[in-house]
Design brief:
heterodimer; A: Rossmann fold; Rossmann fold; nine-stranded mixed beta sheet; 8 helices; B: mainly alpha; Amino acid/polyamine transporter I; globular
Chain lengths: 244, 483
């Protein structure tokens, strides 16, 4: 038996965003933190928005909650009025120790899950998410790595084998795991290409750097291009982070 | 609902605000708990806090730095001579004397509404209504004042490029900017806070360069003669009456408290932002007057009127200096006006939340997510006031209405310390109570006495109307602190 990871599912609650088909089934084995949020323009007080729309938002949130629960998920809800959606999402991840954020999209049959792996950092959390979500399903899991030019095939193989061992340790059948190593194209394009035959993606977020600030997080770009749900596994949040 | 005082152990149900207004609405229920990052209602709905210390300082400095530097130097020097620097110092000391008690209250009640919220929760609904409606109108007078200042700067830009009008374009330009600002805030300007931070940053850089150069020059470093003159050419009384006039320059720190509900780690950031912004702008103001009066002498300075600083800059560095100060003046008066209009709309929200104004007044339109009724309720009267073009009266009435509130804030601290209700647990406590807040209250009320009779008359009229409105509209509403 493995521990159930907490997955954050953010929904823009007052904008009629609904849960795509299959989301409940996808999350049936995990704990879901369903975050209904509404982004308030800066010239409006969040409390002012709350005064007028709280009831409507709560009703909608309750509908989504019961839909997820009837599919078997354990659900906790939060409703937040905020000026900055990203700040709220970050706070939820931190306060609830969410392992991953789901960017939902439609999913019918869950046959193949693509798991791109960059390196050894964060593998532990990645494994916990994959196990939590898919250990009790029949989906095959493709561990995918785009090798760096100076990286040997052997190194890449060792990396993926290590992850595969971790998955079999927690009881995932070896036959369900496939290993793929790619070279050449940029990582982003390779992942998008490999994702064409996949039904869901689980991938880690990268450390924020100048490039990600300018061009956006690779994981978010993958989520934009991919037709299907993407789980973005979160970095470890340092304790007591200072925000002024 | 519980009447009377809180139970002595503070464990029972906290007293709730109660009563109904003429329209049958009751005050909203207060939140369950307040954390550093969110305000939580009923354990279910949260309001994210998104403004950090930098943002809080930018609101305070951005609202304040406009008037004192870009509108008042000429007027103040004309009234009090070089001693106008002392007037600004007096204003700064009073602002600081109020900012400290306001900080204590803000850490005990980190909710949006600012001074209105503190006074209504500690001294009752009647005081609250007078202060709340007074604050709203005070902000409207302040916005109108900033817009007239903006009009002067925009007119100076036209004069600089050689466009001459047969009629003074100041008031029409102020009106155009007033309409534009109201429209912008209803239509949903994105990233206003980021723009505000940027504007304040640019302003501080321009001013620091300019004032450093100016001070060195005034001290004779560049071998230039300063205009020698008496420090008190108009006597000591004029110093105080000028302090009363220019006090409008210090209204901004209270605007930080009107968005208290959005500030992260309020117990730390609110006091720092309020006290910090007063200190920063006070230094800038005093140095500005010093530099400006040493450049020209008070009499010539006052002839330049509202845009005197442009001439000071021209004197030092020629046309580029004049253009830089023109630009800074436009930015500063624009950001002050914008901040005041938004604060006025926040005040309407705070009042309607407490059923002192119809709930309809803070209604939000679905298309833009902005409180269009509250913003229009601010924008309309502002335009009327801008049309008068009376810089000094507008400034004084704004000061008057704020000073009454500031005095009551000081009184509120004394009252709360004496009563010590269980919910009152400020994380920041001011020293020397009750002497310090008592001096603050005396100074605030005292400064009012130095204003011109017209301003005092209008101010008292506004307070009277506010009180009558409360008696008519919300006589049974009681508001109580419960945190």
């Amino acid at each position: 038996m493995h521990e159930k990871p907490t997955i954050l599912l953010p929904v823009r609650i007052l904008e009629g965003e609904s849960l795509p088909e299959g989301t409940g089934k996808l999350l049936s084995n995990v704990r879901v933190l369903l975050l209904g949020y509404h982004v308030v323009p800066e010239q409006t007080a969040p409390g002012q928005m709350q005064m007028q729309f709280e009831d409507r938002a709560q009703d909608r949130l309750a509908e989504l909650e019961s839909a997820l629960e009837s599919a078997g998920a354990t659900v906790e809800t939060r409703l937040v009025f905020t000026h900055e959606g990203q700040k709220t999402i970050d706070r939820m991840i931190y306060e609830h120790g969410c392992l991953a954020v789901l960017v939902p999209d439609m999913v019918r049959d869950l046959d193949d899950v693509l798991v791109p792996i960059r390196g050894t950092v964060g593998v532990d959390r990645l494994v916990r998410v994959v196990t939590g979500l898919f250990a009790d399903t029949d989906a095959s899991i493709t561990l995918f790595h785009v090798a760096e030019p100076d990286e040997t095939d052997e190194d890449a193989r060792t990396l993926l084998d290590g992850v595969a061992d971790r998955l079999t340790d927690v009881g995932i059948d070896e036959e369900r795991i496939r290993l793929t190593i790619r070279r050449g194209d940029g990582a982003l394009d390779s992942i998008t290409e490999a994702a064409e035959s996949a039904d869901a993606i689980v991938m880690g977020e990268t450390d924020p750097s100048i490039a990600t600030f300018v061009f956006g997080m690779p994981a978010e770009k993958v989520a934009d291009r991919f037709v299907g749900p993407v789980f973005i596994v979160q970095r470890e949040r340092p304790d007591g982070i200072e925000r002024d | 609902m519980v009447d009377g005082d809180v139970d002595p152990f503070g464990e029972g149900v906290p007293p709730e605000s109660s009563g109904r207004n003429v329209g049958g609405e009751s005050p909203e229920i207060d939140p369950e708990s307040i954390s550093d990052e969110a305000t939580i209602h009923d354990d279910e709905t949260e309001l994210e806090r998104t403004i950090g210390l930098t943002g809080g300082l930018a609101i305070g400095i951005g609202t304040m730095i406009g008037a004192g530097i870009f509108v008042f130097p000429g007027l103040a020097a004309g009234n009090a001579g070089p001693a106008a620097a002392l007037s600004f110092a007096i204003g700064g000391v009073i602002a600081l004397l109020v900012a400290l008690p306001a900080s204590e209250l803000a850490t005990a009640m980190p909710r949006s509404g600012g001074g209105y919220f503190f006074v209504s929760r500690s001294m009752g609904t009647a005081y609250g209504s007078v202060v709340g409606l007074g604050l709203w109108l005070g902000l409207i007078f302040a916005s109108a004042f900033y817009l007239v200042g903006l009009g002067h700067y925009a007119a100076a830009v036209f004069a600089e490029v050689g466009l001459i009008f047969s009629v003074s374009p100041v008031v029409p330009l102020g009106l155009v900017f007033g309409v534009a600002l109201t429209g912008l805030s209803i239509g949903g300007t994105e990233n206003t806070a980021k723009i505000q931070n940027l504007v304040v940053g640019i302003l501080l850089v321009i001013l620091t360069l300019f004032l450093t150069y100016g001070s060195l020059n005034a001290l004779g470093v560049f071998g230039r003669e300063t205009a020698p003159e008496a420090f008190f050419p108009k006597g000591v009384f004029s110093v105080f009456s000028t302090a009363a006039l220019v006090f409008t320059s210090y209204l901004g720190f209270a605007q930080v408290a009107t968005v208290a509900g959005d500030i992260q780690k309020p117990s730390r950031n609110l006091p720092l932002a309020m006290v910090g912004s007063v200190l920063v702008v006070a230094v800038f103001y005093i140095v500005t007057i010093f530099v400006a009066t040493s450049a020209f002498g008070a009499d010539r300075l006052s002839e330049f009127g509202e845009t005197a600083m442009v001439e000071v800059a021209r004197e030092f560095v020629g046309r580029p200096g004049a253009v830089a100060i023109l630009l800074a003046g436009l930015l500063a008066t624009f950001s002050s006006a914008n901040a005041s209009i938004l604060s006025a709309s926040r005040t309407v929200y705070a009042l309607s939340r407490d059923a002192l104004l119809p709930k309809k007044a803070s209604e939000i339109n679905l298309r833009y997510g902005t409180p269009h009724v509250a913003l229009l309720a601010a924008g309309g009267p502002i335009l009327l006031l801008v049309a008068t073009g009376q810089v000094e009266v507008l400034a004084e009435v704004a000061s008057f209405l704020h000073l009454i509130m500031y005095g009551l804030i000081c009184v509120a601290v004394i009252a709360l310390r004496r009563r010590d209700p269980p919910w009152y647990e400020p994380s920041y406590r001011i020293p020397v109570v009750p002497a310090l807040p008592a001096v603050g209250a005396a100074a605030s009320f005292g400064l009012v006495a130095f204003m011109r009779p017209a301003s005092i008359g209008i101010g008292i009229g506004v307070m009277l109307i506010s009180y009558l409105w409360y008696r008519y509209y919300a006589g049974t509403v009681t508001l109580k602190g419960a945190f």
